Structure to design on (995 residues):
């Protein structure tokens, strides 16, 4: 199980990356994350929707309403240019952390602490 | 399948949606979004095999959590932008401030009205007084060469007071010829009121002068028609101002035409614009000096009737010129006469406020009056400002909530200060607009009070207006800063809860009330003293009876030569009590001829005033001979051979028994003649002057100029008619005109009267404004304590007790202000009284009355509100929130 903090920290890059692949809506995003983690990560609505709205308020993503055949409305999100930039920033940050950790864990199975 | 009623998805969703709608803080669109999410999830769960009902239940489980998360997220988001985004600037909120300011005014119409009106009255008074002060300060500044024109005078105290304003003819001419620093000279001599005639138009015209031809060059009077260089060169030329020209030459140019004055034909050589009011030489026409034909006009000693003005070259010092002239004098008048002469120079614009010499053209004003009025204007304004501050501060409580909200919404303290200051300026602006209207409306009343004639253009003069604008801003800031400072300091939470404590401010407010009362007290005291002094002066024993005296000016020689017959005719009517003919009368002019008392060395001779009278003079005026006797017809040597002096003369001459000492007037070949009687001292001129040494003698008839006739107090009309008839019998040519002595004498006090009037009205205003302010303050404070009063009443306090309790606090204030104001006013008025030779004193009664009136004002203002509060139903007071 992934910790709460890690879930929270990864929510922004996760959502931005998913939306980078194309427009999507709340329920679909939750499904995709489940798929990606092989069913391990289950994001709750309480986790997703606030982040979506925050990203929207910060101008990183934008939304539009689509009216379906049965007269129901669905809110679709997509990345803004600002969001695309933010995604790159997130990527770099995440990779920095990743590389540092990978270097530390290295080819040798033993961890050496100085 | 269950046995429950059919599960309806639509209804379930409806119920769910209804519940959601009740939730506060949900952004629009959230419900729709989550609803769609619900449907998606239900579909997905159904495809996994759950029933619709089960799917709904599972799907909607997690939703509430999401809702809460969304709601808190929304709240967080709302707070952020205020810090990061744009600050709400003062200017953006201006429309709001206007609205709020006006709404404040509207909501509390009563108090706002009081405040605005009080301030308006204060500003209006200040404007009027400033106009008056400006008028006084700019006397004689409109001449072309104002800064270089000096009056040449004799500053020798032995000639009377600190000097005499008139000199002899040759002084000016010699100064001009022999002193290079003097560029030009011009002289004025009174032109005795003539009878002017053109066709059917016959009138006496006053305010005329002889003037040298150089007058237009030196003074630059505006000439509408005529040649300034030649107008007054030839004899029998006259320059008329518009007002005189309008009488005799309506709608035509008078230049070149003839005008008869005293039977002689003059040529009008110039038309002048009317002379502005702010000058010490005011005239209606000028006659050429070359017309003047007095035998002594070129004498160095005998005939000092010339007002002499020197035009100095640029950059020249007046003292240098005075010194040079002083050195020239001995050459012309001889060393022996020198002790009586000391040349002095007065800058023309200084004369009106700073000169008080003997024989000024008209009595001048004094710079202390200007200071006094400026001080009064300032004080009245201060009172109005203090009012405003007091009231604004007292109303602070009502604005507490508004302040709390503004602060919570992010207003900075400086913004709030600016807002309240702005409100104060709006108030002041409204008051000023009203004030200008008030000032215009009150202009004619002001003119009556100050005995002047200001016009609306005087009031709206550019410099004055700009000063007023500066004043407005200053007042707004001054009165508004304390409340602004105070109000903006309120803590938001406490203000919203209604827990503001105004502890520090009540001492300041108290201080302001004391200040207001102190000023009012001072003004009341000052006015009482002025009134007292003026009454004292009017009712003092003049030494003669000034009631019911009619004065006629002799126009024709027949009235001189047939004096005895004329008097007999007059006395035929029983209403005529006595008649006298003389050359002078008290309060009028006298002869500045030197006299020679026997046995007194020249440098010790007192400056005797010489009155040329007749046998009836002393009785007609009701004077008293205390030693020796009056002139008698039975003793022929009394005529032109005897002298009567007054007690002051005897004192100054050092003659304990003056009878039979002798005095001569060499200049007219009189005497030495014996003193036959001593007269009780009387006031010859204004009470400002000490009693002078006087001598009376009987001259030859050509000296005589006036008749003084005492009539009975009953049938005044009849007596006047009889006098007129008799006049017309002896002088059918000249129109009859007379004046009552006491109204003439009153005119000597013109300046004091004007001062008294202005002081009176200012005091009344200060009192009214103070009372208004105090009334407003008392109202507010009483309002705040309505609950307390209600409780006290319920506990059994009577109306009287409540009123007393409220009044006690104000009594303390009044007592303190009296302690401050009375000593200050006492000292100040003491100084003013010193300028009088004969003065009243400030006694305890005056002070007591002042104190009582101030207390009265305080109590009346407070009582009204307290009684109102005390009489109201306690239930209402306690219930109100």
């Amino acid at each position: 199980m992934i910790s709460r903090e890690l879930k929270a920290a990864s929510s922004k890059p996760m959502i931005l990356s998913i939306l980078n692949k194309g427009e999507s809506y709340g329920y679909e995003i939750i499904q995709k994350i489940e798929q990606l983690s092989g069913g391990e990560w289950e994001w709750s609505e309480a986790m997703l929707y606030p982040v979506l709205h925050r990203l929207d308020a910060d101008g990183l993503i934008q939304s539009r309403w689509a009216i379906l055949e049965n007269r129901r409305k669905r809110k679709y999100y997509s990345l803004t240019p600002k969001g695309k930039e933010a995604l790159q920033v997130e990527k770099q940050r995440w990779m920095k952390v990743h590389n540092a950790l990978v270097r530390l864990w290295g080819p040798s199975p033993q961890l050496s602490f100085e | 399948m269950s046995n429950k009623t059919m599960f309806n998805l639509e209804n379930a969703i409806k119920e769910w949606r209804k519940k959601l709608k009740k939730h506060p803080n949900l952004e629009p669109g959230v419900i729709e979004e989550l609803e769609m999410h619900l449907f998606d999830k239900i579909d997905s769960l159904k495809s996994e095999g759950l029933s619709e009902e089960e799917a709904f239940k599972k799907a909607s489980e997690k939703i509430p959590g999401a809702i809460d998360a969304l709601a808190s997220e929304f709240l967080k988001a709302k707070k952020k932008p205020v810090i990061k985004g744009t600050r709400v600037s003062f200017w953006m909120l201006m429309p709001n401030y206007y609205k709020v300011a006006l709404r404040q005014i509207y909501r509390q119409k009563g108090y706002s009205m009081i405040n605005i009106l009080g301030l308006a009255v204060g500003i209006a008074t200040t404007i009027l007084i400033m106009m008056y002060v400006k008028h006084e300060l700019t006397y004689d500044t409109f001449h072309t060469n104002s800064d270089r024109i000096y009056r040449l005078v004799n500053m020798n105290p032995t000639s009377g007071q600190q000097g005499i304003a008139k000199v002899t003819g040759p002084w000016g001419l010699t100064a001009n010829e022999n002193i290079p620093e003097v560029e030009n000279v011009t002289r004025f001599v009174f032109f005795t009121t003539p009878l002017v005639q053109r066709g059917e138009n016959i009138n006496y015209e006053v305010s005329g002068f002889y003037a040298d031809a150089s007058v237009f060059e030196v003074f630059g009077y505006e000439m509408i028609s005529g040649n300034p260089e030649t107008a007054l060169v030839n004899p029998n030329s006259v320059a008329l101002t518009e007002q005189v020209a309008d009488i005799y030459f309506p709608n035509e140019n008078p230049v070149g035409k003839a005008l008869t004055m005293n039977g002689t034909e003059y040529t009008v050589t110039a038309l002048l614009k009317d002379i502005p009011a702010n000058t010490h030489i005011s005239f209606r026409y000028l006659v050429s000096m070359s017309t003047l034909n007095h035998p002594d006009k070129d004498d160095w000693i005998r005939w000092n009737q010339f007002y002499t003005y020197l035009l100095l070259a640029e950059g020249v010092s007046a003292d240098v010129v005075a010194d040079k002239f002083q050195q020239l004098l001995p050459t012309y008048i001889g060393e022996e006469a020198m002790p009586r002469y000391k040349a002095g120079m007065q800058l023309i614009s200084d004369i009106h406020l700073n000169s008080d010499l003997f024989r000024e053209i008209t009595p001048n004003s004094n710079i202390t009056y200007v200071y006094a009025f400026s001080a009064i204007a300032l004080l009245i304004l201060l009172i109005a400002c203090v009012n405003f501050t007091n009231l604004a501060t007292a109303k602070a409580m009502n604005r507490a909530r508004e302040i709390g909200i503004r602060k919570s919404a992010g207003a900075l303290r400086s913004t709030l200060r600016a807002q309240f200051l702005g409100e104060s300026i709006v108030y002041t602006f409204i008051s000023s607009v009203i004030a200008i209207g008030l000032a215009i409306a009150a202009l004619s009343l002001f003119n009556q009070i100050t005995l002047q004639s200001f016009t609306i253009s005087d009031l709206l003069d550019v410099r004055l207006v700009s000063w007023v604008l500066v004043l407005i801003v200053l007042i707004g800031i001054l009165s508004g800063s304390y409340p602004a400072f105070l109000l903006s300091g309120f803590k938001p939470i406490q203000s919203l809860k209604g827990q503001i404590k105004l502890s520090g401010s009540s001492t300041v407010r108290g201080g302001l009330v004391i200040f207001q009362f102190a000023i009012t007290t001072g003004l009341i005291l000052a006015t009482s003293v002025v009134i007292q002094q003026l009454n004292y002066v009017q009712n003092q024993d003049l030494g003669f009876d000034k009631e019911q005296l009619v004065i006629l000016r002799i126009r024709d020689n027949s009235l001189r030569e047939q004096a005895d017959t004329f008097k007999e005719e007059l006395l035929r009517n029983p209403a005529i009590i006595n008649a006298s003919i003389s050359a002078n009368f008290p309060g009028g002019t006298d002869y500045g001829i030197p006299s020679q008392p026997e046995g007194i060395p020249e440098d010790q001779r007192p400056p005797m005033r010489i009155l040329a009278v007749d046998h009836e003079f002393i009785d007609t005026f009701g004077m008293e001979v205390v030693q020796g006797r009056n002139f008698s017809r039975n003793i022929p040597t009394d005529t032109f051979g005897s002298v009567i002096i007054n007690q002051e003369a005897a004192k100054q001459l050092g003659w304990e028994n003056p009878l039979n000492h002798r005095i001569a007037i060499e200049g007219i070949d009189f005497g030495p003649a014996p003193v036959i009687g001593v007269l009780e001292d009387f006031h010859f001129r204004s009470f400002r002057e000490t009693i002078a040494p006087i001598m009376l003698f009987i001259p030859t008839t050509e000296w005589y100029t006036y008749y003084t006739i005492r009539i009975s107090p009953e049938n005044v009309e009849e007596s006047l008619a009889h006098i007129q008839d008799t006049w017309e019998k002896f002088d059918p040519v000249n129109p009859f005109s007379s004046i009552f002595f006491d109204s003439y004498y009153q005119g000597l006090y013109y300046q004091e009267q004007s001062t008294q009037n202005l002081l009176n009205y200012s005091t009344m205003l200060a009192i009214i404004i103070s009372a208004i302010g105090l009334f407003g303050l008392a109202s507010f404070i009483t309002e705040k304590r309505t609950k307390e009063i209600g409780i006290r009443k319920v506990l059994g306090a009577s109306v009287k007790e409540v009123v007393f309790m409220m009044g006690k606090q104000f009594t303390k204030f009044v007592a303190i202000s009296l302690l401050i104001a009375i000593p200050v006013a006492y000292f100040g008025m003491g100084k003013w009284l010193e300028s009088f030779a004969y003065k009243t004193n400030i006694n305890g009664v005056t002070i007591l009355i002042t104190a009582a009136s101030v207390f009265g004002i305080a109590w009346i203002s407070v009582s009204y509100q307290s009684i109102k509060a005390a009489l109201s139903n306690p239930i209402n007071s306690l219930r109100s929130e």
Notes: The first helix of chain B runs from residue 9 to 21. The CA atoms of residues 254 and 268 of chain B lie 6 Å apart. Confidence is low (pLDDT under 50) at residues 81-86 of chain B. The interface with chain A takes residues 27, 29-30, 32-37, 39-41, 44, 62-63, 65-66, 68-70, 72-74, 77 of chain B (CB under 8 Å).
